[in-house]
Amino acid sequence: MAPRHGPRRARIAFSDSAAKQLESITSEAEIHALDRALVVVSVDPDVGEALPGDFDGPQLRQYTDDVEGVRLLYWVTALRTVVVVAYIEV
Fold first, then answer.
1. Which residues pair with 71 in a beta bridge?
2. DSSP 3-state assignment of 35?
3. Nearest CA-CA partner of 42 in 4, 85, 13
4. Are 35 and 29 in contact (CB under 8 A)?
5. Rounded distance, CA 8 to CA 61, Å?
6. Which of 45, 40, 39 is nearest to 79 (CA)?
C-alpha cells in the first residue's frame, strides 16, 4: 500500500523585488523567520488576509507572523502558486 501524503503544498515563487530582498538577507535568524512564514503560506495560501484594492488584477494578500516578526505580501495564481511580491520584516 502506498504511503498517504498530506495535502499538496503550494509552490512559492518570488517577484523581482522580493528576490532582491532575499539577496540582502544575511542573518540566519531572518532566514529562519522567513522560511517559517513561507511554509505556513505554502500549506494554506488563504491564511493571509485579503488587502483592499483593485479587483482587475490578482488579489493581494498579507500574512503576518507576529511570533517571528515577518510580514509577506503575496497573491495566489489560479493554479495555487503563491507569488511573493515582498518580504517585509516587521
1. 64, 88
2. helix
3. 13
4. no
5. 20
6. 45
Q: How far is CA 69 from the centre of its chain?
A: 14
pLDDT of residue 45: 92
Q: What is the total residue count of the chain?
A: 90
pTM over 0.90: no
Q: What is the pLDDT of residues 13-30, one digit of tens each?
A: 999 999 999 899 989 999
Could you give the 3-state DSSP secondary structure of residue 70? strand
Predicted pLDDT at 9? 84
Q: Which cell goes with 3?
A: 504511503
d(CA 78, CA 45): 12
Burial of 41 (0-12, 13-18, 19+ CB in 10 A): buried
Output the CA angle 20-21-24, nearest 5 degrees: 95
Residue type, 31: I
